[in-house]
Design brief:
CATH topology of the largest domain: TIM Barrel
Number of helices: 10
CATH superfamily of the largest domain: Glycosidases
Radius of gyration: 25 Å
Number of strands: 16
Shape: elongated
Helix content: 25-40%
Number of domains: 2
Distance between the termini: 67 Å
Length: about 475
C-alpha cells in the first residue's frame, strides 16, 4: 500500500469539504412542452438533460386561476416516462402584483392550490428577476432607497411558507436574480438593482423582521452574459454577476444572510442557474424582424454551452444549469438561444451540448473542483503610499464599493493594533472617504505629530458588509 503524501491528503480533504463536484443536473427553461409534451420531453432526454422548467403566472384579479393547467397536467404526467423532472417558475402578471398585503394573501392561497394540483412537482422557483423593473416595481423609493428587495422579501417568505405548508418536501428556489442592474434610481431607462445590492436589501429586511425560519431552500440566478458575443468565462464587474462570478454571488449571499435563519452556501445552500443562453444568427424565411443583439454562429453557441456545462460540473454549489430556450423563437427581436431552430430542426450546436452533458453526467468535473469560503476582507483591496515630510498620501483601490480611514500611526505597531486604531472614531485624526469599485481615490493626510518613526496606514471596509475589513500599511519613515 502506498503512503499518501501530505499534499495528497490536503487535496482529498479539500475535495471532500467542497462536496462531490459534477452533481449538477442539466435542463431547459422552455414553455413549449405545455403544447407538445412528448416531442419536447424526448428532445430533452436526447440531450442527456433531466429537467424542464415551465412558467406559471399569478394574477391577483383571478387568484383561483392556474393558467394552462390542463397542459401542465399532461406535461407533469408524461415527464417521468422520459426521466425528466418538471419545475415551475412563478411569474406575476404585472410588476406590482405582489405589492399589497391583500395580494400577498391571495398569492399564498394560489400557491397552495398549485402545489396541491401538482404534488409531484418539487421545484418551485420564485417570481422572476425582481431586480429588474420589467418584473418588479417600484425598484426605489422617492428618496432613492432600494424598495424592491424589501418588498420581495415579503413575497419570498410568503412563497416559502405557503409551499412548505402544502408539502414540506417542496424545494423553494428563491429570487431568480437577473445578472445585472444599474443601481440608479434616476437612470434614463431600466431603473434597476444590481444582484449584489438586491441581496443586501433582502438580507437587511430579513434581519429587521427577526424571522426565525428560512425563506428559500436554494437560490436561483440567471447568469446571462453581458454581451451575447462573450463566453461564460467572461464575467461582470462588481456588483453584477455572471457564470464566472459565482464566488461573488456566494459572498454577497453570505454578507446578506450570514448569522440569520437562512442557510448560506457554507451551510449547504445551492444555486440553480435557471436561465442561460446565447443567440445565434437566424437565417431564412422562418424568422421575422431584426436581431436585437450581435449574434454568434452555431459552432460558437455549442462551444459556449459546453463550456458552461463543464463549469457547472466543477462547482458543487451548482444544483442545476438550465438553458433558455430549447427551441428558438421565430421573431428575431426575441430569443434564438435554443439548440433547435424555430422549425424544430437541430442546430450544429446540438451535438456539442449533448456530448458535454453526457460527459459531465458520466465523468463529473473534468478540472479542479471549486472550493469556497466567505471572505473576511475587502475584494482585492490595495493601496499605494507616498508623500513627503508632513503631508502624506495614500491611494486606495478595491473591486467593490468600500469606505476607508487613513492615518499616520507610530511604526512598530502590529497590523491588528493598527486596525483597532483606525476603527476608533476618536483615537486618531484620520482622513475618511469612500472607494467606488475599480476607482482610486487619493487621500492626503496632514501630519501634526512630533518627531519619530511612523507609517501611513489605511483600513478599508466593504460597503455591503462593514465587518469585512482589510488593513494596509506602508513602509516606515522618519519625521523630524
Amino acid at each position: 500500500m502506498k503512503t499518501l503524501t501530505a499534499a495528497t491528503l490536503c487535496a482529498l480533504a479539500a475535495l471532500l469539504a467542497s462536496g462531490s463536484a459534477g452533481a449538477a443536473e442539466y435542463g431547459v427553461t422552455e414553455d413549449l412542452g405545455k403544447a407538445s409534451p412528448a416531442w419536447i420531453l424526448q428532445t430533452v432526454q436526447d440531450l442527456g438533460m433531466t429537467r424542464n422548467v415551465v412558467s406559471l403566472g399569478f394574477d391577483p384579479s383571478g387568484p383561483g386561476l392556474l393558467p394552462q393547467q390542463d397542459e401542465i397536467d399532461a406535461l407533469v404526467a408524461l415527464a417521468p416516462e422520459y426521466g425528466v423532472e418538471i419545475g415551475i417558475a412563478v411569474y406575476q402578471r404585472r410588476a406590482g402584483s405582489l405589492s399589497t398585503p391583500a395580494n400577498l394573501a391571495a398569492f399564498s392561497t394560489w400557491l397552495g392550490n398549485a402545489a396541491r394540483r401538482w404534488p409531484t412537482v418539487r421545484t418551485w422557483i420564485a417570481p422572476n428577476e425582481p431586480n429588474q423593473p420589467r418584473f418588479w416595481q417600484p425598484q426605489f423609493t422617492a428618496a432613492c432607497v432600494n424598495a424592491s428587495g424589501r418588498a420581495y422579501f415579503r413575497a419570498q417568505a410568503t412563497m416559502y411558507d405557503a409551499l412548505k405548508t402544502a408539502n414540506a418536501a417542496n424545494q423553494v428556489v428563491g429570487i431568480a436574480l437577473s445578472p445585472r442592474g444599474n443601481d440608479n434610481c434616476r437612470a434614463a431607462s431600466n431603473v434597476s438593482t444590481s444582484p449584489v445590492r438586491f441581496l443586501q436589501s433582502i438580507g437587511a429586511a430579513m434581519r429587521a423582521s427577526r424571522r426565525n425560519r428560512p425563506i428559500m431552500d436554494a437560490l436561483s440566478q440567471h447568469p446571462y452574459p453581458l454581451l451575447n458575443t462573450q463566453g461564460p468565462a467572461v464575467g461582470y464587474r462588481w456588483p453584477n454577476i455572471g457564470v464566472a462570478n459565482m464566488d461573488r454571488l456566494k459572498q454577497a449571499f453570505w454578507d446578506a444572510f450570514g448569522g440569520t435563519a437562512q442557510p448560506t452556501f457554507e451551510g449547504g445552500l445551492q444555486v440553480y442557474l435557471d436561465e442561460l443562453g446565447w443567440q445565434t444568427d437566424s437565417p431564412g424565411d422562418v424568422y421575422e424582424g431584426l436581431e436585437n443583439v450581435p449574434v454568434i454562429d452555431e459552432a460558437t453557441q455549442g462551444r459556449y454551452y459546453a463550456q458552461a456545462v463543464r463549469m457547472a460540473a466543477c462547482d458543487p454549489s451548482v444544483a442545476a444549469l438550465n438553458f433558455f430556450h430549447l427551441i428558438g423563437e421565430d421573431g428575431r427581436d426575441r430569443f434564438q438561444s435554443g439548440v433547435l431552430w424555430a422549425d424544430g430542426m437541430r442546430k450544429d450546436s446540438f451535438v456539442p451540448v449533448q456530448t458535454a452533458i453526457l460527459r459531465a453526467r458520466d465523468g463529473g468535473c473534468a478540472g479542479l473542483p471549486v472550493t469556497w469560503r466567505h471572505a473576511t476582507g475587502v475584494a482585492k483591496a490595495r493601496a499605494s503610499f507616498g508623500g513627503r515630510g508632513r503631508l502624506r498620501r495614500v491611494t486606495v483601490r478595491a473591486e467593490e464599493d468600500a469606505t476607508y480611514t487613513a492615518a499616520v500611526v507610530p511604526a512598530g505597531s502590529t497590523r491588528t493594533a493598527i486596525g483597532r486604531m483606525l476603527a476608533s472614531t476618536s483615537a486618531l485624526r484620520g482622513v475618511r472617504g469612500t472607494v467606488k469599485a475599480y476607482r482610486a481615490p487619493v487621500a492626503r493626510i496632514p501630519v501634526s505629530l512630533g518627531p519619530g518613526r511612523y507609517v501611513t496606514a489605511v483600513r478599508v471596509a466593504a460597503a455591503t458588509n462593514p465587518a469585512r475589513t482589510t488593513v494596509l500599511v506602508g513602509a516606515p519613515y522618519t519625521l523630524r
